[in-house]
Amino acid sequence: MISRLRTSLLPLTLTILFCTASVAAQDTDNPIVNPAAGAKFAPIPNAPECFTIAVEKGDPSMGPSVVLARFAPHCVAPYHWHTPGETAMVASGTLETQMKGDKAIVARSGDFVYLPSHHVHRATCNGSAPCLVFLSSDAAFDVHWVNEEGKEIPFEQAVEPTKTTAKLNK
């Protein structure tokens, strides 16, 4: 119930977080140029603290959008899925992506990854540099965390194995 409530509150929370985004980011009828140096990254609810985004175009809480996502080095987004289809284009860094049941792939600058709607996947920023990734979604953005069996779980449970693994690797 808590997980569903958090997931259902995500669009509202994203609207509040990004209501100060530039007018250019919301205007779909005009050309847009947003220099990366001016990107204003913010955390999103129901996601690891090491993952932040800057809205480039659209409104992730309302419909299609493009965001610039920044993963801190070694940031892990455990297994999850989204209602919309998601396209990822790596701008810098080394992002390891794994679709549930498939081998992990390593995407570098210029590499393209498409994640279909409801397709369970995870991502990790490898190396010592942050990963910058353009994420495009074809509808309002949401996150549904899942366990090894694919059952939806609260975010806190999803990241717990990651914390445990990090402690073991120290």
Write a concise synopsis of the structure shown.
By secondary structure, this protein is α+β, with helices and mostly antiparallel strands.
Radius of gyration based on Cα positions: 15 Å
Terminal CA distance: 34 Å
CATH names the topology as: Jelly Rolls
What is the name of the CATH architecture? Sandwich
Name of the CATH superfamily: Jelly Rolls
Key words describing this protein structure:
alpha+beta, 170 residues, 20% helix, 11 strands, globular, Jelly Rolls, disordered C terminus, 5-stranded antiparallel sheet, 34% strand
Layout: helices, strands, pairs:
Elements: H1 2-17, H2 23-26, E1 42-43, E2 51-58, E3 65-71, E4 76-81, E5 86-92, E6 94-99, E7 105-107, E8 112-115, E9 121-126, E10 131-137, E11 144-145, H3 155-168
Antiparallel strand pairs: 1-2, 2-3, 3-10, 4-9, 4-11, 5-8, 5-10, 6-7, 6-9
Description:
There is one protein chain. The chain has 170 residues and is α+β, with helices and mostly antiparallel strands. It has one domain (2-25, 38-168): Jelly Rolls, CATH 2.60.120. Helices cover 20% and strands 34% of the residues. It has helices spanning 2-17, 23-26, 155-168, and strands spanning 42-43, 51-58, 65-71, 76-81, 86-92, 94-99, 105-107, 112-115, 121-126, 131-137, 144-145. The protein is globular, with a radius of gyration of 15 Å. The model is unreliable at 1-27 and 164-170 (pLDDT under 50).
